[in-house]
Amino acid sequence: MAEPSARPGPGPDPGFTQQPPGSRPYANPHYAAGPQTGNGYAPTGPAPTPPPPAPKGKNVVRSSLLMGAGSLVSRVTGFGRTVVVSAAIGAGLLGNSYTTAQYFPQMIYELVLGGVFASIIMPLFVKAHKNDPDGGDAFAQRLLTLAALVLGAAAILVTLCAPLIARAMAEPVQYELVTEFSYLMLPALLFYGLFAILSGVLNSREHFGAPMWVPIINNLVVITVGAVFFAVYTRDAVPNAAGEVFAAADQVTNGMIILLGAGTTAGVVIQVLCLAPALRRAGFSWRLRFDFKRLPLRDIRRMAGWTLLFVAANQIAVMAVIKVANAAAGNAVGDQFVPGTTVYNNAYLMMMMAHGIVAVSVITALMPRMTRAADDRRWPELVEHLSSGIRLASFLLVPISAAFIALHEPIALAIFQWGAYDNAMAVATGRALLMVGIVLMPFSISQLQIYAFYAQTDTKTVGLFNLPVIAIRIGGYLLAFAFLPLAWVVVGLLAANGVSYLVSLLLSMSLLRKRVGLLGMRRTAAGLVRSGAAAAVAGAAAYGGWLLWPDVSDSKLGQLLAAAVLGTALLGVYLAACLVFRVTEMASLQATVHARLRR
Questions:
Q1: From start to end residue, where is composition biased (Pro residues) (predicted)?
Q2: Please, what is the average pLDDT of the chain?
């Protein structure tokens, strides 16, 4: 579900211990006389020296562009690995088993640490860097040590419980495969956690590039694994009467499982190791610290209770969607193909790719600023950061939604119809992609608003209003399975997600307004109407072009040309329509380009 870490040895990892030459710009002058550490929650000792003025041009737009470039390459290569692995193993029994097992370490990481990190620890990193005389180094070292111990113990425990987890989530025909994959993939939850915390250390110091760029290496590792699997196993595999390969468990060997499972985990480990140079440049070294009493554990526990409620509810929803998707595929009659977990996951990853390239980059750039504004109770400044982030993200996401809706079929055929992923699987993915285009905007805007609560380290509100959201989502899953034809269950699952995202958006907007005042939504809504109208014009033009396009179901070149030509045309029409409709963000972009050209 996500793309997204170095194994602790008996002592500090040498990759993280070397201090860069020279003094650190955020260090307190008293630190040289003797390290003074705080708890990351309030100023300790002499006031820290304020950081030097930000260099000219260093702002949210620049940071977002830097991360957007890294996230673009990362997400594209991440999606490339999905395409390669899908082509190697298909969307049938083997593909659904691999995808199901791949969810487990991420789900458990979220339960153990992920939600707590996003909502509590990241803001505390920013506060520690701002308030502690050592720039928050000791706070981060303690937290890293504690997280490594907790996540390491959790990784051992859940790996031993792999058979139980598989039985809870998979259909009987999948049990053995999912269990064997899980033994190899569940240890990755330790590395997911380390990568998240080390990325938080860098982001709190406004070093945004590496966390966005190093996942590319992880993706390249898994792409290599998928390519090797295809060359060794898929190319010579014999399909069944419906054209599906690896349709039975006895066709999957131990070598296949080891290559896919161990290769996927190796990519996450390498990803963590590659953060070392960026950490050195940021002036951070990790050494083991066991003085956990210096951490604000009481406050973390207090806030974490609500966060765990939020995360647990979300993971119950994830478990429900995996179970329902597997059940739909498991109820297929004979050789009939019914979309399951792999098709759902691929469509969901398309949404997360768009969200990650645009909205996550904006969120990551805004989070330190929103946290500082909330820490000083500068509510108008927090509102302005949130409003500008929503406007910028929406302007960039609207044409992507239009492309997913208007061009779902050519995009799915061009991207997915390779190797073991046949035409029926690609067409089913296209139907799911259409629904992704509808739900993308409410998802991204709701996530941006949730992070405004996280900037205030308020997890109680998010945890409480998330309960009805998750209840609606799971109820939608059950309705989709009960009333829709099996071939449309995955589309129904994504539609249920969309309804819950819209409810989350409306609830968070209402609660934020009571907390911090007007959110400037009138201006935001006006921009959305204009950009939405531009996207509707562009989408209609692109869809008309697809209706006139010759049949490309058996032509890979035709599929690629259709997706590329019509997608480019959609973007061009969108930008032109934005100029006609006087979309504010388009005018700003045009002015920036003109200024650059005059230099």
A1: 45-55
A2: 82
pLDDT tier at 60, thresholds 50, 70, 90: low
Least confident window among 73-82, 109-118, 473-482: 109-118
Half-sphere CA count of 529, side-chain side, radius 13 A: 6
329 burial type by CB count under 10 A (0-12 exposed, 13-18 middle, 19+ buried)? buried
Tell me the per-residue pLDDT of 249-277, one tens digit each, with 9 for 90 and over. Answer: 889 999 999 999 999 999 999 999 999 88
Is the Cβ–Cβ distance between 194 and 144 less than 8 Å? yes
Spatial separation of the C-alpha atoms in residues 168 and 185, rounded to whole Å? 17
The answer for residues whose C-beta is within 8 angstroms of residue 342's C-beta and 6 or more apart is 86, 90, 91, 92, 95, 96, 98, 99, 425
Helices 489-516 and 341-355: angle between axes, nearest 10 degrees: 30
Instruction: State which amino acid sits at residue 310.
Output: F
Burial 556-588 (b: 16+ CB within 10 A, else e): eebbeebbeebbeebbebbbebbeebebebbee
Cβ–Cβ under 8 Å, residues 313 and 467: yes
Domain parsing of the chain, residue ranges: 68-297, 299-598
The pLDDT of residue 253: 94
Give the lowest-confidence range in 35-49, 175-189, 202-216, 493-507: 35-49
The 10s digit of each residue's pLDDT in 326-336 is 999 988 887 78
Please name which of 452, 152, 174 lies closest in space to residue 288, comparing C-alpha atoms.
152
Structure tokens at 344: 């759902």
Give CA 505 to chain center in angstroms.
18
pLDDT category, 200, cuts 50, 70, 90? confident
DSSP 3-state of 421: strand
What is the rounded CA–CA span in Å between residue 236 and residue 43? 65
Structure tokens at 96: 């659904």
The answer to whether 401 and 440 are in contact (CB under 8 A) is: yes
User: Helices in 206-296 by DSSP H: which ranges?
Assistant: 209-213, 215-229, 254-273, 276-281
- 51: DSSP letter: P
Residue in this structure with the two tokens 């388009």, named with its chain if needed = 586
Closest C-alpha among 440, 251, 219 to residue 348? 440
Residues 6+ apart with CB under 8 A from 486: 328, 331, 332, 338
Q: Which residues of 435-458 are buried (b: 16+ CB within 10 A; e: fewer)?
A: bbbebbbbbbbbbbbbbbbbbbbb
Nearest to 33 by CA among 43, 20, 46, 21: 46
Angle formed by the axes of helices 175-185 and 162-169, nearest 10°: 130
pTM of the model: 0.79
Nearest to 432 by CA among 350, 502, 355: 350
- b (16+ CB within 10 A) / e for 282-317: bbbbbebbeeeeebbeeebeebbebbbbbbbbbbeb
Regarding predicted confidence, which is higher, 211 or 477?
Answer: 477
Query: DSSP assignment, residue 271?
Result: H
What's the pLDDT at 574?
95
Phi, psi (degrees; rounded to nearest 5) at 291: -85, 65
Q: Which two structure tokens, joined as six digits, stand for 436?
A: 């992704």
